[in-house]
């Protein structure tokens, strides 16, 4: 019996723990009413609403008479929040779960009534439908109702007074009032008069009454003070670019635009629900339940929220992205193998292991246009940690010992694995192995797709499999498709040109096509653009931008579609591969997230985690990589170091360059130069070294003989003739000295 009782106790305890906090939210905000911070705060609450059991959201709870003839706030809320919530709900429940089907909105019955609260009045709730609705909700509930107070306390005071006068303290025992900005020890109010705040000015009697009833133990009243404003809003992320990311969802858009001021969103009243949740720095256990808000407590809670402010914003952003159709649990990796020169990734999935065959850029010195010295076989079982298996060398093919290892594709047929590869843009060959990890041998000893087989260069092959038919797609400008024979070393059909149209006119693509099918649509992707068709051989209709980056390879893993996409890890000639999830709009077009970029854009970070990242000594110093830093000994007053060439960084996306350096010399000056170029003409073939004497050098005052690292920033506006692409950076780390050393921790162009 004792064991059964213990088991029942734990089951009941778990049931209670699993229950969501019940919420009734009262706001003085609305359309043309009050400060719009409440608009952002309610939107952020709705993004988090799966964590609560929301009974109602009341708007316009303010007695100011000038609000009497404003719009019906219930209708406005349904049109604004209700419509946005309904639009975002399917994706929120798909990717996060637990959201209510509907949220109830109502207009406050005290909106614009022109009279403040009076404890002497015997209030009839018939005259106050919104207050009566709360009373009835609490009366019938067997749970605590958390009343979030976003404004003045008139409604709340009327309810408390009614319950006391009608001997319904049982109702009050089931309410927790959680209020914001009805006290302020440091902001607006003072330590002597913390009630000198806007929400108390609006109805001072109601504010005083609620605080007195809390002090005498009649009600539970949690006063947050200013911790929402100064613990969440002010320490959180700044900048329009960050908050624009929210605008991909309907609720996120309301949040971002409700009150965007001082370069950030203000939703300070949200402190009430974050404290109710209790897992972002502050909980109700950290706030007195008797309405007191002592300075030391408010400061402690403010600092606790401040430590988590960025996490709070990122959680809201995660949910806003989910609402727009982006799986927040999908995996993204900026560079799967950093600083390695991995390019042209091509994927094959086998038994839950993802294999990638990639080309390898020969050097980050940028000696010539896309010199690629080998192909490599890699794999992963979690999409995060990648293992190298084998190199495949051009000397093992008809190519010979030439750095011509351009893009290809990997596939399997009848137990054998085939690597179709490009000999630069000249022709296409094929290798074969008994295992996906090799060893691979040239199947033909000559090209499968020789020069002249089609009017364009026959390279960059893609293999598409459907109904056991293997189709090879290749070329540039105009793609061609043909069926591969079962021996995989000949064509069964004659190559056919694939037409792509844009607005009824023929559209010329770039190199490296990739293909996948979804919902009866064929997707033809080339770099950062794509087209769609209902037929494999087209015609295809150009749709626009794909995710930002270079060559692509698609695969499905654990129910999510992913792409490996080429990036500019070190430079345009020493690349990497990014892993990105792929999402779709309701019309089957590809969803492009607002924060999508081609790594490492925007800007160019050098953090020296694994290597020198292409930085080398130019003159007057050596350069070595030690423990995540680069370091050198000076032997010339004009000592200079330079980055890898061909950074290919868009200058219009950048505004400054910052160097974190420890100068262990007597020098009090460093210099920076940026070499930039506009695209056009012989842009890709011109690999001549920079004449740094002709470049503009910006002088930066620095301290001598440093003990610690110091940061120095130069605005790019100081460079008079900066062009479209920043191609290389030159630094003189210690000007005018012949001895000593320097250490650089990071260099960031952003």
Automatic annotation (TrEMBL):
The regions listed as transmembrane in this protein's record are none
Coiled coil ranges: none
> Which Pfam families does this one have?
Glyco_hydro_43, Sde182_NH-like
The record's listing under InterPro entries reads:
Glyco_hydro_43, Glyco_hydro_beta-prop_sf, Glycosyl_Hydrlase_43_Enz, Ribo_hydro-like, Sde182_NH-like
Every copy of the Cellulose-binding Sde182 nucleoside hydrolase-like domain together lies at 33-157
Q: Which family does it belong to?
A: Belongs to the glycosyl hydrolase 43 family.
The name this protein goes by in its record: Cellulose-binding Sde182 nucleoside hydrolase-like domain-containing protein
């Amino acid at each position: 019996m004792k064991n059964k009782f213990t088991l029942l106790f734990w089951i009941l305890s778990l049931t209670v723990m699993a229950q969501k906090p019940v919420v009734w939210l009262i706001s003085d905000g609305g359309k043309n009413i009050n400060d719009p911070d409440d608009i952002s705060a309610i939107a952020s609450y709705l993004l988090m609403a799966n964590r609560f059991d929301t009974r109602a959201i009341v708007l316009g709870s303010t007695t100011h008479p000038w609000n009497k003839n404003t719009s019906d706030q219930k209708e406005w809320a349904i049109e604004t929040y209700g419509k946005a919530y309904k639009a975002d709900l399917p994706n929120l429940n798909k990717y996060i779960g637990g959201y209510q089907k509907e949220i109830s909105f109502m207009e406050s019955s005290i909106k614009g009534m022109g009279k403040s609260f009076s404890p002497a009045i015997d209030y009839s709730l018939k005259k106050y439908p919104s207050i009566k609705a709360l009373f009835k909700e609490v009366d019938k509930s067997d749970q605590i109702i958390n009343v979030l107070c976003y404004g003045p306390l008139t409604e709340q005071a009327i309810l408390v007074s009614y319950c006391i006068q009608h001997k319904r303290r049982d109702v009050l025992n089931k309410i927790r009032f959680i209020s914001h900005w009805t006290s302020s020890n440091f902001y607006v109010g003072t330590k002597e008069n913390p009630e000198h705040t806007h929400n108390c000015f609006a109805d001072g009697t109601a504010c005083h009454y609620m605080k007195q009833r809390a002090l005498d133990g009649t009600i539970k009243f949690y006063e947050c003070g200013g911790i929402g404003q100064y613990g969440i809003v002010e320490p959180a992320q700044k900048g329009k670019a960050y908050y624009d990311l929210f605008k991909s969802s309907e609720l996120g858009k309301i949040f971002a635009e409700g009150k965007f001021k001082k370069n950030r969103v203000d939703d300070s009243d949200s402190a009430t629900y974050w404290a109710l949740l209790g897992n972002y720095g502050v909980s109700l256990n950290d706030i007195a339940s008797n309405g007191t808000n002592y300075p030391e407590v408010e400061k402690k809670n403010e600092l606790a929220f401040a430590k988590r402010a960025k996490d709070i914003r990122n959680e809201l952003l995660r949910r806003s992205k989910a609402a727009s159709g982006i799986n927040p649990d999908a995996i993204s990796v900026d560079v799967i193998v950093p600083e390695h020169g991995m390019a042209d990734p091509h994927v094959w999935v086998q038994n839950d292991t993802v294999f990638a065959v990639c080309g390898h850029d020969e050097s980050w010195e940028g000696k010539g246009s896309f010199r690629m010295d080998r192909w490599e076989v890699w794999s992963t079982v979690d999409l995060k940690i990648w293992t190298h298996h084998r190199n495949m060398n051009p000397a093992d093919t008809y190519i010979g010992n030439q750095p011509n290892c351009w893009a290809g594709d990997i596939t399997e047929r009848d137990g054998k694995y085939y690597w179709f590869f490009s000999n630069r843009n000249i022709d296409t060959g094929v290798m074969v192995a008994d295992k996906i990890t090799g060893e691979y041998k040239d199947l033909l000893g000559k090209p499968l797709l020789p020069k002249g087989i089609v009017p364009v260069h026959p390279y960059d092959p893609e293999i598409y499999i459907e109904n056991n038919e293997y189709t090879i797609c290749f070329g540039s400008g105009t793609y061609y498709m043909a069926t591969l024979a079962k021996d995989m070393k000949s064509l069964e059909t004659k190559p056919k040109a694939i037409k792509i149209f844009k607005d009824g006119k023929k559209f010329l693509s770039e190199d490296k096509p990739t293909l996948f099918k979804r919902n009866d649509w064929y997707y033809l992707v080339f770099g950062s653009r794509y087209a769609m068709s209902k037929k494999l051989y087209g015609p295809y209709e150009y749709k626009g931008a794909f995710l930002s980056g270079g060559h692509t390879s698609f695969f499905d893993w654990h129910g999510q579609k992913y792409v490996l996409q080429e990036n500019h890890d070190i430079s345009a000639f020493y690349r990497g591969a990014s892993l990105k999830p792929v999402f779709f709009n309701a019309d089957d077009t590809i969803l492009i997230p607002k924060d999508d970029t081609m790594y490492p854009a925007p800007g160019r970070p050098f953090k020296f985690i694994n290597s020198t990242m292409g930085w080398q000594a130019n003159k007057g110093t050596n350069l070595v990589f030690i423990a995540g830093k680069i370091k050198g000994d000076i032997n010339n007053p004009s000592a200079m170091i330079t980055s890898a060439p061909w950074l290919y960084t868009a200058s219009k996306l950048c505004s400054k360059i910052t160097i974190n350096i420890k100068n262990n010399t007597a020098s009090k000056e460093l210099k920076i130069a940026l070499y930039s170029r506009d695209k056009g003409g012989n842009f890709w073939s011109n690999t001549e070294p920079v004449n740094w004497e002709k470049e503009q050098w910006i002088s930066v005052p620095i301290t001598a003989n440093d003990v610690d690292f110091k940061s120095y920033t130069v605005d790019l506006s100081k460079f008079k003739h900066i062009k479209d692409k920043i191609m290389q950076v030159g630094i003189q780390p210690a000007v005018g000295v012949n001895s000593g050393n320097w250490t650089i921790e990071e260099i960031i162009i952003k």
